[in-house]
Amino acid sequence: MNFVSSNKKWVAGSATHWVSALLVFVCSALGIAVALYEWEAYRAAMGQSEQTSRNLAASVLNEVQESLQQAETLVSLIVGTIESIPTWETSSTTAVLRDVILERIHAQPMLHEIYVYDAGGQLVVSSYTSARQENSALQQDFFDFHRRTARDVLHIGKPFRALPDGEWVVPASRRVNTPKGAFLGVVVAAVSVKHWQASFQQLDLGTNGLVAINSHDGIVLARYPHVESAIGASLKDTPVFRDFLSRSVRGSMRAASPIDKIERQNSFVHSTTFPVMAIVGTSTDQALSAWRSKAIFSFIIFGFLILLIAVAGAIIHRLLRKQSEILLQLSSAHRRSADMERALDEHALVSIVDSNGQILYANQKFCTLSKYTHEELNGRDFRITHSDVHPAVLFKEMRRTMQQGQVWKGELCERAKDGSLYWVESTVVPFLDKNGKPLQFIEIKTDITGRKRVEVAMQQAYKQLDQSNQRLAALAAFDQLTGLPNRRHFDEILDSEFKRAHRSGQPLAVLMVDVDYFKQFNDLYGHGGGDICLKRVAGALQRAERRPGDLAARWGGEEFAIILPNTNNLGAKAVAELVRCAVLSLYIEHQGSPLMQLSVSVGVNAIASTEVGDAEELINGADKALYQAKKGGRNRTHVHEASKSHISITHDAEARRKKLIEN
């Protein structure tokens, strides 16, 4: 009877599985067919979009290259003309040069203007007929580039707004050299971004299309549609530039723009002639709109067929399902029990101990960690793995808890058969008889030896990190070159001293010290010589600190600052003279100075306790005094006062030189 019943259940269950498998197969086959068809359609749509963007990117790059080629031709012509004229900066020469520029620029509609700058960055001549509002190129990156490098290349610089109309232009520039190769100036052709954008507007890119011209280092030169904040922005640190645009000469990718966050199918191509690239993107939504419509219709039909198959299968499946439910539940329960047992054995050390403390069972993980065999553990006292690391009171508490029928949890250090120690997180669960007395105990342990090692390592790491932070905090307050306190530390001390001066009623003075003609010193003796010079000046300032409260610091570049607590204008002036003379006494040769040796200018400002203001005003006053000292001829000390009078100490350079020779 039992055999027949079991057989019926097996047949019912088998039939149910076959019906379910057939339904799944039919639905899967239909689903795969529809998915493959739509996938091919999707690839075709994306491929068409990608090919279109590639062709447009190549076309856009060709047009941009033609513009830059025309600009380079004109710039090269002007550079050659200038280099062939010995005295090209005369009024007659510049007039001729302007005529040449005006004659050529009318034939170049993509050029907004032509600029010619001398070696000092001043505008000598341009194609603009009226007076210019911008006369200097010192703040432009292209001027700094040509001044720093002697390479004769066409440099594509960062876009800027040309005055007076404020139109965006891209500077295409070349360096002008003397016959000996020295820097003579820069010729710049300002390519009109507006001209490029008008050309891009003619392309049929659809909704949310994109055309962009970027430099090779990620600077946005032109963009359509125009986004004001994007022109001149750097995309160098964006994922799109790092992962795609900088990796190859040409390519395609599907990505969101870092400017407007719109996802597009983009194609890009780098110019091999000029340091620019063209990017053309078509909206992903537009490229896939037709495909989506067809795909939605296909999936509706597919869903309808699946619904019909599901209804028919459900009627058959319901008849067979009831016969197999109980069998499936039992099988599932047995399977879960076996899985849980196996998972527990794989994860934890499991042992069963009787009420007398003898081990009845130990799993394989317990044997592996303790290095005992099953035979060596069965029947032995559970304390066989105890170590002498813990105090006896811990085990007394454990036994008391277990005898009361309560669960005990804790961390234990145990000893393996070979004497090695390991750590476990232990949970002991008692099984009670009908009288509530413990019959057996199941001990479940988790190996935490690695965690314990990590905890020890982390404690040591935290200690080392704390020591490193203390060293870094000390280093952060001092200038690495001169060894003096840096500006940050100076500001903290000045703020503290300023508050103290107001509380105590004492005066406070600040000296601003600047090395005279330091740029010429660097040009003559190199940056290495300049560093040595700054170190020696810093040493002279340190020697001028006569009191513990005085603080000399490096303010920045060749500027230094000194805080003088409890010092008025007269005392500060005396210290300033001491500093100035201390630097002169170093006798550092300086061929670029009228004095023929290194000197400093000092600005002095002091406040009395009754004056109001803040530390910033104190610094500003000293800085203004320094400006007056340098304006008055350098190698001077100038005292800033709130009143009309100013104290200035002036020293004639020739007299100083003679006195130094006598000394």
Question: Can you put this structure into words, describing what you see?
Answer:
The chain has 663 residues and is α+β, with helices and mostly antiparallel strands. Among the domains are: 348-452, PAS domain (Beta-Lactamase); 487-662, Reverse transcriptase/Diguanylate cyclase domain (Alpha-Beta Plaits, 2-Layer Sandwich). 48% of the residues lie in helices and 22% in strands. It has 15 helices and 22 strands. Strands 1, 2, 3, 4, 5 and 6 form a six-stranded antiparallel β-sheet that branches. Strands 18-19-17-20-21-22 form a six-stranded mixed β-sheet, sandwiched between helices. Strand 1 (111-118) and strand 2 form a beta hairpin. The longest helix is centred in the first third of the chain and has 82 residues, at 2-83. The radius of gyration is 43 Å and the shape is flat. The N and C termini lie far apart (130 Å).
Strand content: 15-25%
CATH superfamily name of the domain at 487-662? Reverse transcriptase/Diguanylate cyclase domain
* Helix proportion: 40-55%
Summarize the biggest pleated sheet.
6 strands, antiparallel
C-alpha end-to-end distance: 130 Å
